[in-house]
């Protein structure tokens, strides 16, 4: 058996699998999901729509109806192509498989979405993480210096960033794009909760790619992410995408959901209002620092050394959040709260007030 395992690349054996916390029976405020469920009339209309799906057939390999729906509701510039992935995680995997060659480097600013580093490892690429400033703004000089040394094949910038919730100075982002010898992926997973977007940059900079997902707006269970970019670049990536990566139920459901996108936009507006309320409540906790957020979660720093105990106390009361203390040197004493339903946010604040 050990001989068989030795066939597996050492860098894979060194990794720990991506850990998803067991949320059974808990209020889930750990994974940036939209807490609002569909009302019965929408559910019934969706189920009606699914009646036309023939599971005996393979799905359409290019999902044209889904792409048309995305063009209806997103500001995708004319002339740009779309590639669909089973979540944006799969887009990362496809992109890095295409770029992986000996010595090729992925650069990201940290703390950031951990999958950039994970997938770089799977793909056998080098990974460089450049720390953000203490306030999570870009340390532009450090990034430019790292670009000059490592000449990365791709740079990832999430706007807004996970787990910090902020967006970056647009001038700094442009400077990084202009200095980059490779691709720059602007990851807009949290776009529904902020204003402005990166699509206009696609027409200015040929090395920019924009990645989005339907997960955070309210369709996490669907697993649909997408990449927007130049047709010649996406044409190459399409060669790696497996032909039926978006299954027939996902295609039909996405088509339906995109036709009802206003429902999700309205929910995102409510989540933004709840975010303000949660922010104000957290800000009143003595000794805490709360970081402004343009996403559907809030990063907060507890008084020194208390993060683990507070995480455990919330869990004991049935609420699961994300503990980030220890995940990165800049995240000491940090917890991340996904914005939940009003009553869930109230429950969080009540418990935290009692603990303070
Ligand atoms: C910045 C960022 N990008 C991408 C993703 C992945 O999204 P998906 O559900 O589409 O795989 C996440 C998920 O948390 C994220 O935080």
Task: Please sum up the structure shown.
This protein is of the alpha/beta class.
Explain what this protein looks like in three dimensions.
This protein has 2 domains: 132 residues, Aspartate Aminotransferase, domain 1 (Alpha-Beta Complex), CATH 3.90.1150.10; 208 residues, Type I PLP-dependent aspartate aminotransferase-like (Major domain) (Aspartate Aminotransferase, domain 2), CATH 3.40.640.10. The longest helix has 23 residues. The mean pLDDT is 97. The chain starts with a helix and ends with a helix. A 7-stranded mixed β-sheet has the order 2-8-7-6-5-3-4, with helices on both faces. A 4-stranded antiparallel β-sheet has the order 9-10-13-12, with helices on one face. The chain has 356 residues and is an alpha/beta fold. The protein contains 15 helices and 13 strands. Helix 6 links the parallel strand 3 and strand 4. Bound molecules: pyridoxal-5'-phosphate. The site of pyridoxal-5'-phosphate has 12 residues, from helix 5.
Helix and strand arrangement:
Elements: H1 2-5, H2 10-13, E1 27-28, H3 40-50, H4 64-73, E2 81-85, H5 88-99, E3 105-110, H6 115-122, E4 126-131, H7 140-150, E5 154-158, H8 170-179, E6 183-187, H9 199-202, E7 208-213, H10 215-219, E8 225-229, H11 231-238, H12 248-259, H13 261-283, E9 289-290, E10 297-301, H14 307-316, E11 319-320, E12 322-323, E13 334-338, H15 342-355
Parallel strand pairs: 1-11, 3-4, 3-5, 5-6, 6-7
Antiparallel strand pairs: 2-8, 7-8, 9-10, 10-13, 12-13
Helix pairs in contact: 4-12, 5-6, 7-8, 13-15
The structure holds pyridoxal-5'-phosphate.
